[in-house]
Amino acid sequence: MNADRAAESAQLIAGAAKMGVALTEAQSDKLLDYLDLLQKWNKAYNLTAVRERPAMLTQHLLDSLSIVPHLPPGDLLDVGSGGGLPGIPLAILQPERSITLVDTVGKKVAFLKQAAMTLGLKNLQAVSTRIESWLPPAEHAGGFALITARAYATLQTLVGQTQRLLAPNGGWYAMKGVFPAAEMAELASDVSVRAVIPLDVPDLGAERHLILLAPTSSGS
């Protein structure tokens, strides 16, 4: 490992630790391998507007890892996955969790499939489709315990498009920037806000929140 790579790994491990996430060197190395792929494919596929590697490490990798302590066990569906954030970092850290990534853009899904193969992520599947018309495979006929989205649509749009895909007692985990007061006010009465978790991402210098939603009928 060269000096630059070692410094990136140290920054990643230290930053994750500040958020309560214990990264092994092997996990850190695989996350950086993913970053290599994202940079390479981004030149042709425009997967992300963030192109400077130090910014990608903070705004993409650490930002994605910030939600790890707040996710319960269960199969996970990520909507509007784009370049694979937070899905691929989650798949690297949690190989025991089945993760499905869905995006409408075929070239982005081609990247996700290539990344999963290159990184050996056997727990990750990527699908090119419109989420509102997608029929999940038989193993997920009962729905997903967690539905995540990062930099996606409004909360109500997310819920409306995916409610049929949520397992009983499941929940939505929406990654947002500033506190989304207007979006929360627009939520239908059959959806409850279960938690609003401020996320402190090291070196980011911007607000981040994780919004946990669940059907009103399931629980309190």
Automatic annotation (TrEMBL):
Gene Ontology cellular component annotations, sorted alphabetically: cytosol
Family designation: Belongs to the methyltransferase superfamily. RNA methyltransferase RsmG family.
Enzyme class (EC, first level): transferase
Annotated catalysed reactions: guanosine(527) in 16S rRNA + S-adenosyl-L-methionine = N(7)-methylguanosine(527) in 16S rRNA + S-adenosyl-L-homocysteine
EC annotation from Swiss-Prot or TrEMBL: 2.1.1.170
Cell compartments where the protein resides: Cytoplasm
Lineage, uppermost ranks: Bacteria, Pseudomonadati, Pseudomonadota, Betaproteobacteria, Rhodocyclales
Pfam family name, one: GidB
Alphabetical UniProt keywords: Cytoplasm, Methyltransferase, rRNA processing, S-adenosyl-L-methionine, Transferase
Primary role: Specifically methylates the N7 position of guanine in position 527 of 16S rRNA.
Keyword Methyltransferase in record: yes
Source species of the chain: Fluviibacter phosphoraccumulans
GO MF term list: rRNA (guanine-N7-)-methyltransferase activity
Full protein name: Ribosomal RNA small subunit methyltransferase G
Residues at which S-adenosyl-L-methionine binds: G80, L85, I131, E132, R150
InterPro entries: rRNA_ssu_MeTfrase_G, SAM-dependent_MTases_sf
Parts forming coiled coils: none
